[in-house]
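re: the backbone from monday

yeah here it is again, tokenized this time
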């Protein structure tokens, strides 16, 4: 056996031992969903809405550290920075969901951030289409935007077996009960529950 073959054999053995000895570390389960599928409903003022689409293109999801200035980069992308993290096409009108595992480094986290961007799908970042009282309605957000959902209390992740569950809900039925742009209204109808 040549020296090169021995080196490759030792290297493969080390890789195999490393894989067997893998420890999971901190993981945060994240579920993003709309309200139960409701294609027709009434607003708070009694107007009948029929939704055809309530699409959100999510390019990536992250937990953001408390000590980072808002807007400075990402910290705990789902699946680290691997390609398994998005993009996703989330249709709130039909009950679509995103289920992910975030693997953050130990630290103190104050927000969940959805990076919304339609470029991966060659379309817009968000789209809302349907009818209000029979009149056609169509709204879009062309460019990328971040939906930042601040936690009520900081999430302290220090121990290897920390496994919080984060349930993020965007209630598409309440989008019509608020004023502002589609991005501003998405921010107002988003709830986050941490267990």
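seq for it, each position gets an aa:
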């Amino acid at each position: 056996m040549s020296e090169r073959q021995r080196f490759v054999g030792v290297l493969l053995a080390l890789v195999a031992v490393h894989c067997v000895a893998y420890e999971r570390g901190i993981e945060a389960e994240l579920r993003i969903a709309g309200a139960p599928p409701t294609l027709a409903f009434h607003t708070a003022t009694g107007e009948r809405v029929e939704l055809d689409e309530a699409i959100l293109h999510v390019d990536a999801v992250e937990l953001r550290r408390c000590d980072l200035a808002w807007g400075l980069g990402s910290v705990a992308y789902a699946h680290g920075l691997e390609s398994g993290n998005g993009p996703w096409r989330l249709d709130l009108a039909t009950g679509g969901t995103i289920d992910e595992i975030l693997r953050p480094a130990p630290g103190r986290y104050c927000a969940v951030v959805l990076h919304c961007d339609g470029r991966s799908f060659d379309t817009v970042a968000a789209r809302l289409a349907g009818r209000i009282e029979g009149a056609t309605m169509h709204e879009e957000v062309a460019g990328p935007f971040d939906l930042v959902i601040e936690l009520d209390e900081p999430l302290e992740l220090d121990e290897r077996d920390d496994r919080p569950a984060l349930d993020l809900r965007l209630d598409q039925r309440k989008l019509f009960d608020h004023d502002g742009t589609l991005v501003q209204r998405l921010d107002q109808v988003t709830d986050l529950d941490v267990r």
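The chain has one domain: 25-194. The CA atoms of residues 47 and 160 lie 50 Å apart.
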